[in-house]
């Protein structure tokens, strides 16, 4: 996080902060840069707004004011234990309302000439943060969310559109309806569709328990070019499971631990890449990444980890 943004979260400050994020990646030599999701910043919801509230509260037939009885009903649901309140309440058939991802992207795109990734939270996670009085069925709610998001995704011409699902690894038994919903979005991506999966990053803490072997069927069902996976924090023993991944799906390998303030050396990152290639074979690693977002780290640490990422890549590739 850029600390001064919280002191003055004006539109101009958000644009300035976004340019800092983009330029930091450019100067470090990142090939495909991300905007840092700062346009989603809300000082009243700094922890989860960028991944949850930003997407659901502007939707039509969704109420953002949450009552005491809503909180009590939400507490009865399973699968979202790290939240004590719903992000919002669904009271009718969802429509896009005031959500405008297209123009959010169009405001950012002119700030850099480097290829960009645009990220969107997936329908599985969003559906589980909502209290639903209308669909009364998680798969139906997730598909409704996905349909609304897909219409906007179709107009976003970023080099990569990445859909983030940070809850599914803890609920792998829900993979079939989750895959059906997310594929509605992935099929709408104009260029390269990607999916990010992790075990949570709430205040720098892991939220979900589980293992990657439970998600192989889900990953194989995705209409994605590649999947971006958390590995640096967890270790690389589970890479073996991805030998069964269909060859059309590449891997975005997590090589930087964002839950640690220790700066990885380029040599360590290169070794992680060498090991992954040894296990999975040539041409399976399509991208390398941090495990998840840098939002909970101080800027100096995040910047150093970004530099280490590119130096490790260069060392591995012999640049």
What does this protein structure show overall?
37% of the residues lie in helices and 16% in strands. By secondary structure, the chain is of the alpha/beta class. The protein has one domain (3-317): TIM Barrel (Alpha-Beta Barrel). The chain has a seven-stranded parallel beta sheet with strand order 1-4-6-7-8-9-10. Strand 7 (192-197), helix 9 (216-221) and strand 8 form a beta-alpha-beta unit. Helix 6 crosses helix 7, helix 7 (138-153) runs parallel beside helix 8 and helix 10 (266-280) packs across helix 11 (299-317). The protein is globular and about 55 Å long. The model has no long low-confidence stretch (mean pLDDT 94).
Averaged pLDDT, please? 94
Q: What is the H/E string? A: HHEHEHEHEHEHEHEHEEHEH
Envelope shape: globular
Strand content: 15-25%
- As a percent range, the share of helical residues equals 25-40%
Rounded to the nearest angstrom, the radius of gyration is 19 Å
CATH class: Alpha Beta
Specify the CATH architecture.
Alpha-Beta Barrel
Number of helices: 11
Low-confidence stretches: none
How many distinct domains? 1
Major sheet summary line? 7 strands, parallel
How far apart lie the N and C ends?
31 Å
Largest beta sheet: strand ordering? 1-4-6-7-8-9-10
CATH third-tier fold name: TIM Barrel
- Which structural category fits the helices and strands? alpha/beta
Secondary structure: number of strands: 10
List the helices and strands and how they pair.
Blueprint: H1 3-7, H2 11-28, E1 33-34, H3 53-56, E2 60-63, H4 68-75, E3 88-95, H5 101-108, E4 116-121, H6 123-129, E5 130-132, H7 138-153, E6 160-165, H8 175-186, E7 192-197, H9 216-221, E8 226-229, E9 250-256, H10 266-280, E10 285-290, H11 299-317
Parallel strand pairs: 1-4, 3-5, 4-6, 6-7, 7-8, 8-9, 9-10
Antiparallel strand pairs: 2-3
